Amino acid sequence: MALLHRAELHPTKLELLASWLPGRPWYEGPAAADVERVAAFRFDDPAGAVGVETMLVRAGAGPVHQVPLTYRDAPLDGADDWLIGTTEHSVLGRRWVYDGCGDPVYVAALTEVIYSGGVQADEYFEVDGKVEHREPNMLVTGSGVADADIPATGALHHVTDEDNSTAVVTDSVRLTVLRRLPAGNPVAGAILTGTWDGQETPVTLAYATPR
């Protein structure tokens, strides 16, 4: 379960992405366009310490881009290359925003959802002391089964941006996170697929192969 706050962010997530996206090798779009949110979903951090959200965004008339994000209350050691920026959260204070592909919490969550056949986290807002459910605007599903053995991802050995994906090599799996969506032909095997408004046919978002 993801418990969210009705809060203000300065700068906003989209403002951070507007300055960060043009520097990515997989980005397609104008260098100085406003970034709009298309859809989003969240995973749970079992420890409850890190926010894990994947946003689908578009800049100008460009394609839809997938950007996993993690939100932390302190810098992540050794992850400077994956820091998107910092933002001031009106409830939680300063937050360090990372590209999730470089954050072991996102990588472990993605691996678990893929192999267990999991789905996105339920999202709730706390309003006047009451918890209210927020309807999802994106649905994701892993291809595995509930009683599967989940590989322990362990350390991140290599995280590499490629033309239309980011490859993450861990102790036990190699994950590929697709960046421009939809990304060609469907992928077989251990995958995460998703649908959202305007994309009713499931598309592959990420896939995993054992090491």
TrEMBL record:
It comes from the Bacteria. Keywords: ATP-binding, Kinase, Nucleotide-binding, Transferase. Pfam families: Mak_N_cap (PF18085). Residues 20-103 form the Maltokinase N-terminal cap domain. One of its GO terms (molecular function) is ATP binding. This is Maltokinase N-terminal cap domain-containing protein. It comes from Micromonospora pisi.
